[in-house]
Write a structure and sequence with these properties.
mainly alpha, 45 residues, 62% helix
Length: 45
């Protein structure tokens, strides 16, 4: 119980918010060229 009493709660919440923001940024769509998205597609010639 002593560990809980001595814990820096504000620092812990800041760390969690920072980590959540990083995860959200990872999930954002990124700009790609059509070749990267459909690289295995070939024209029907």
């Amino acid at each position: 119980m002593r560990e809980i009493d001595e814990m820096d709660m504000l620092g812990f919440l800041k760390l969690r918010a920072w980590k959540a923001a990083r995860e959200k940024k990872k999930k954002e769509p990124k700009r790609r060229y059509i070749d990267e998205v459909w690289g295995n597609m070939r024209p029907n010639v």
